[in-house]
Design brief:
By secondary structure, this protein is α/β, with parallel strands linked by helices. It has one domain: Rossmann fold (3-Layer(aba) Sandwich), CATH 3.40.50. It is about 30% helix and about 25% strand. It contains 8 helices and 10 strands.
């Protein structure tokens, strides 16, 4: 589903923030992209989402390629930003949820409202967005993204800023997406609440992929690159469900 070959990216006038990135993610898999702050995780998600173009190399998601088909990539991949306040554009929950939907398409509108109900947002549809909690804002942005029916879901630190019930709820959503066969890429610097959900784990360090593979094959080496392994792993209990 996702194929990246020899990817390099630099912001205008700057040094490369990503170099030599090569990896493949099969359809329906959940890839956890780990690394310390500044390692290039958000830049890689933006490239996958078609918001940026590679300086060298290429990205293929399904039949869409970058450079060249960034507009198609933006339809294929849905991105949940870490700072959801940058993603909310509507004045009310309903307005934001339906912003990217053709108002004449009743089927898509119904699907979007169904997602809102599943996320327990249906009672908040008329609420001004500024009155929502951080967790409610994250769910709104995720619901609006899923309403566009992306083939790939990209999530930048989706658990940051959430309380314990919020983390459990977000994990449940990610797990259900995985069951439904949606390809997902999660950027995270804390592996504790996500390692058990991942099919693949990639560690970015100074703009390069230093580790890549199933979590059981990678977790033993993540400390070398500033990433803390889950407590259960550190206590020789393997990868345990987080709860």
């Amino acid at each position: 589903m996702i194929e990246i070959k020899n990817l390099e990216f630099a912001y205008p006038g700057g040094k490369p923030v990503l170099e030599g990135i090569t990896l493949e993610v099969p359809g329906g898999a959940l890839l956890c992209l780990a690394g310390i702050n500044g390692s290039g995780k958000s830049s890689l998600l933006s490239l996958l989402a078609g918001l940026l173009s590679p300086s060298k190399g290429n990205i293929r998601v399904g039949t869409d390629e970058s450079p060249g088909q960034e507009k198609s990539l933006r339809r294929t991949c849905g991105l949940l930003l870490q700072d959801v306040d940058l993603q909310i554009l509507g004045a009310t929950v309903e307005e934001d949820l339906l912003l990217g939907i053709d108002p004449k398409d009743k089927n898509v509108r119904t699907k979007a409202l169904d997602i809102a109900r599943n996320f327990e947002l249906d009672a908040l549809l008329n609420r001004p967005v500024q009155t929502l909690s951080w967790g409610q804002k994250k769910k709104l942005c995720l619901a609006a993204t899923l309403a566009q029916a992306p083939k790939v879901l990209l999530l930048d630190e989706p658990l940051s800023g959430l309380d314990y019930p919020g983390i459990l709820e977000m994990r449940s959503i990610l797990a259900e997406n995985r069951i439904q066969g949606l390809t997902q890429v999660i950027a995270a610097h804390d592996l504790e609440p996500v390692a058990d959900l991942a099919d693949l784990l990639a560690v970015l360090h100074q703009g390069q992929i230093t580790l890549f593979g199933p979590p059981k094959d990678v977790l033993g080496k993540v400390k070398e690159f500033g990433v803390r392994p889950p407590c259960a792993w550190s206590k020789d209990k393997g990868i345990m469900p987080w709860e």
